[in-house]
């Protein structure tokens, strides 16, 4: 659950110089209370369905909702098998300025079923997840250019009713980079550092997350992405989480996108697989 809210890129991406055009003075004049007109809207960009975040923000005064319509995750360690169903977890975005948006990420409802083969017991829990508040600030490339970079600090506020989740305040910072490779191919890179509560002892430990995704425009409306994701907590005994992810996106309209995808675990610490379908809408 937590890794779906927190995402990743090599630190070297910070050294890449901006190549895109800066925002026009005309467009930067718009704000939350003076919405960007339709004619000046940038192409809709989402932070889903891959785990690599987008460096592009929601236009000033506009709103965007990104959600899983449903998601199913399965993990079997040999002794314990866990099935998780998530329904309508969403990311509600608010365009504050030309290059800054506010994001409220909330896990609406989850049902977790665990089977312990050794003890021959089965437990089921359900409830909502935590609230994550994020601020995305685009540094360059929001409205043009071959590259775009953003910085996104966030804080997790404990609001869950699930026994599997902790009640600690946690946070971190995400740095996503996008590179237009030409020919309808794009590269997304992300690096992230989280400060998470230790499970076995008191205090906090940093977690380092990195990911890379390659997107392909198959048609004007249909897109394909392939992604590698890694997560490593520095707490003693923590194992590397690595997944291979793939999915499709389809633009129903300029302001509506649907998607489907699968995440496959590459290491023992990762979930075996996750399947999901979602939708993003801009207002």
Characterise this structure.
With about 280 residues, the chain is mainly β. It has a single domain, classed as monomeric porin ompg (Porin, Beta Barrel), CATH 2.40.160.40. Helices cover about 5% and strands about 55% of the residues. The protein has helices spanning about 1-5, 25-30; strands spanning about 65-75, 80-85, 90-95, 100-105, 110-115, 120-125, 130-140, 145-155, 170-180, 185-195, 205-215, 220-235, 240-255, 255-265, 275-280. The longest helix is centred in the first third of the chain and has 4 residues, at about 1-5. The radius of gyration is 19 Å and the shape is globular. The chain starts with a helix and ends with a strand. Residues about 1-25 have low confidence and may be disordered.
Number of domains: 1
What strand line-up does the widest sheet have? 1-3-4-7-8-9-10-11-12-13-14-15
Helical/strand content category: mainly beta
**CATH superfamily, called what?**
monomeric porin ompg
Give the helix level as a range of percent.
Answer: under 10%
The percentage of residues in β strands lies in over 45%
Number of strands: 15
Major pleated sheet: 12 strands, antiparallel, barrel
What is the string of SSEs from the N terminus onward?
HHEEEEEEEEEEEEEEE
The residue ranges in which pLDDT falls below 50 over 5 or more consecutive positions are 1-24
| Straight-line N-to-C gap | 27 Å
CATH level 1 name: Mainly Beta
Mean pLDDT metric: 91
CATH architectural grouping: Beta Barrel
CATH fold name: Porin
Radius of gyration: 19 Å
């Amino acid at each position: 659950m937590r890794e779906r809210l927190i995402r990743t890129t090599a630190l070297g991406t910070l050294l890449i110089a901006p190549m895109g055009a800066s925002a026009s003075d005309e467009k930067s004049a718009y704000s939350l209370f003076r919405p960007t007109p339709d004619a000046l809207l940038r192409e809709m960009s989402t932070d889903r369905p891959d785990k690599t975040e987008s460096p592009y923000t929601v236009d000033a005064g506009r709103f965007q909702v990104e959600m899983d319509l449903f998601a199913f995750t399965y993990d079997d360690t040999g002794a314990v098998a866990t099935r998780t169903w998530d329904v309508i977890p969403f990311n509600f975005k608010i365009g504050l300025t030309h290059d800054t948006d506010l994001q409220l990420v909330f896990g609406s409802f989850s049902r977790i079923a665990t089977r312990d083969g050794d003890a021959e017991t089965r437990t089921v829990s359900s409830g909502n997840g935590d609230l994550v508040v994020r601020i995305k600030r685009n540094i360059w490339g929001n409205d043009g250019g071959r590259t775009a970079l953003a910085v996104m600090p966030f804080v997790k506020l404990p609001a869950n009713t699930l026994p599997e989740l902790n009640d600690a305040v946690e946070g971190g910072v995400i740095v996503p980079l996008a590179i237009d490779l030409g020919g309808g191919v794009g590269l997304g890179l992300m690096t992230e550092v989280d400060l998470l509560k230790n499970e076995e002892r008191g205090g906090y430990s940093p977690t380092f997350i990195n990911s890379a995704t390659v997107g392909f425009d198959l048609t004007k409306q249909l897109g394909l992405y392939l992604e590698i994701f890694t997560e490593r907590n520095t707490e003693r005994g923590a194992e590397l989480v690595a997944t291979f992810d793939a999915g499709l996106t389809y633009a129903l309209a300029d302001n509506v996108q649907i998607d489907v995808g699968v995440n496959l675990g590459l290491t023992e610490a990762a979930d075996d697989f996750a399947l999901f379908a979602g939708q993003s809408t801009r207002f």
